[in-house]
Amino acid sequence: MNEKQLAKLIKQNQAKAQAKAQKPRSGRAFDPTLVTNNEEEGDAERQQLFKELKRREF
């Protein structure tokens, strides 16, 4: 590789890195194993369970 090709490659890589850095990341987007749960029925049951557990002493 001559210096012109190397300089061109460096500029391309810098542009790619800058484009990635400008994108806002959501908190869960980086971990594909996390499951998004938008179920309302499970949420009500979960709230009731935690409310009951708060009353108990362990």
Structural overview:
This protein has 58 residues and is mainly alpha-helical. It is 62% helix and 0% strand. It contains two helices and no strands. The mean pLDDT is 79. Residues 1-58 are annotated as: Disordered. Residues 7-21 have a biased composition (Low complexity). Residues 44-58 have a biased composition (Basic and acidic residues).
Question: Any key phrases for this structure?
Answer:
58 residues; mainly alpha; 2 helices
Q: Secondary-structure blueprint of this entry?
A:
Elements: H1 3-22, H2 40-55
Entry summary:
This protein is 62% helix and 0% strand. With 58 residues, the protein is mostly helical.
Q: Label the structural class.
A: mainly alpha
Largest pleated sheet = none
Number of helical runs? 2
Number of strands: 0
How big is the Rg? 24 Å
Biased composition (Low complexity): 7-21
Region (Disordered): 1-58
Biased composition (Basic and acidic residues): 44-58
